Amino acid sequence: MSGAVGREAVFPTRQSLGLMKSKLKGAEIGHSLLKRKSEALTKRFREITRRIDEAKQKMGRVMQIAAFSLAEVSYAVGGDIGYQIQESAKQARFRVRAKHENVSGVFLPQFESYTQEGVNDFGLTGLGKGGQQIQRCRETYARAVETLVELASLQTAFLILDEVIKVVNRRVNAIEHVIIPRTENTIKYINSELDELDREEFYRLKKVSNKKQRDVAAADAEILAAREKAAAQQATNPEKNSTVQVEEETTDVLGEQEDNDVIF
Amino acid sequence: MEGLFFNVNGGYVEGIVRGYRNSLLSGQNYSNLAQCETIDDVKLQLAPAYGDFLASLPPNPSTSDLAGRMTDKLVSEFRYLIAQATGSSAKFLEYMTYGYMIDNIALLITGTLHERDTRELLERCHPLGWFETLPVLCVATNIEELYNSVLIETPLAAYFKDSLSHQDLDELNIEIVRNTLYKNYLEDFYNFINTHPDFSGTPTQDIMAEILQFEADRRSINITLNSFGTELSKLERRKLYPEFGKLYPEGSLMLSRAEDVEGVALAVSAVADYKAFFDSVGLSQGGGMGGMGGGPADGKSLEDLFYQKEMDMSKLVFTRQFTPAVVYAWMKLKEQEIRNVTWISECIAQNQKERIGNFISVF
Lengths: 264, 363
Description:
Chain B: InterPro entries: ATPase_csu/dsu_sf, ATPase_V0-cplx_csu/dsu, ATPase_V0-cplx_dsu, V-type_ATPase_csu/dsu, V-type_ATPase_csu/dsu_dom_3. Chain A is mainly α. Helices cover about 75% and strands about 10% of the residues of chain A. Chain A has a domain at about 15-195: Helix Hairpins (Orthogonal Bundle), CATH 1.10.287.3240. The longest helix of chain A is centred in the last third of the chain and has 106 residues, at about 130-235. Chain B has a domain at about 205-285 and about 295-320. Chain B starts with a helix and ends in a 14-residue tail after the last helix.
């Protein structure tokens, strides 16, 4: 898994390690928040699904009653009143207003139905006969439309929530399965690179000190050889050697080699 | 005495109608219909009575199609009768169509008021209310032209002339116009059968006076009940009551003053029949508006009882002879039959079998 997600293209420095660490922390917080949001939405979603089911069944019943009351009207009036009613209706009595509801950051439209009292365009239809049936039919249909409006707001909420839940879940999964592993990988990579650098540095230092030791040893050997040579010369030409010895003494006073015994 | 020469002119028509009467659906037919599972079964059950008219319907027709075909049959039979009738009988049959004409003209007025193409409305007009000059009314584009052509072209001119002006058509609710016309029509019809020399003193006068009085009372009561809670004022309401009938004048006056159902029940309490209706639907005890739905235990509404009464009266008409009133009675019975079948097929189509018995079977 971690192999597939790769890592981010960063220079393995301590600064970017700090950045990555804070990023990982942020991702984890975001993940838990989104997870909670998704759960809240899902809860709501289930509730809406249940209510849609109820509303649909209610709609079935109500529509049936309404259609039947229309049959009652046609029985009582004995004719077609459709045209007259269509023509005499001028203003909507049954109105719908929309408002928003905020469910964990998602705006769900809610339709609310209300009747405009006083608008009664065909109140006189069926005055001669069947008026009561017509009024009752109208009331039944008003109830049916009410159910339809309720169902409409639920359905809209259903669609929107569905979409939002998908998006949120996608984000949750993306964070969980891509961003966090990748950041972790990057951190691991930076750590390993830094360790590697540390080791290289150590090795280098070791090499340097080795080399220094070697150099010192070589210098010592050289000095020793030179001294032996000088001692041999002194033995053959002591006068000359004394003056050299004095010169040498002035130059080599801070030398590392231990002072030779000055023999006069 | 009136029976002596009636058959010279009216015998054939009466005979035909009595034949038609026999094809009306009986209680047995209705109980068969009520057992049907689909509209096709209904169609099959209706085949003996309606035969050719239903044959061309597609399988499982809609209830409105079914009702339309049944109405077609009624119309064609009635047209045959009116073609055969002569003299005062023909006039009587014409009077019967005026009621439908009023509906058609109200439809056209509605269309003209809303500036629709009224030609499309011609199809929606009731075929019984069709008269030759009806399409002429479609020429009118505004309400004043329409008013003038109605006055010139239609048999209903008399009903318009005295009580409605063209401004009224514009301003008044179409239902008020319609009911005003209907009131005038009923009064005119009543006057016609009482004063026409061929009818006064004959069984026609007896029968039709009773039926028309009932019709007038029914309209008054319905208008009153239906006007509660609307903008119709008491004064306007009073103008819509026909000025005859068992309730006229005292009952009408009380109706015009009634403010609720109790008031109506009080107003009609002078007439035993109506009082019985109100008692049986429980309106007079201050119950709610009884209706087909949430009303009384036996499921009958006031409208149902009125229809029932109308059917009983129509049925009794066939016990009389030498009168064109049987045509009227037959037509009412037939209309009720169409309504019954529509109701039954609606119940079947909508799977509401428990209410299927709510029709009025006469024979």
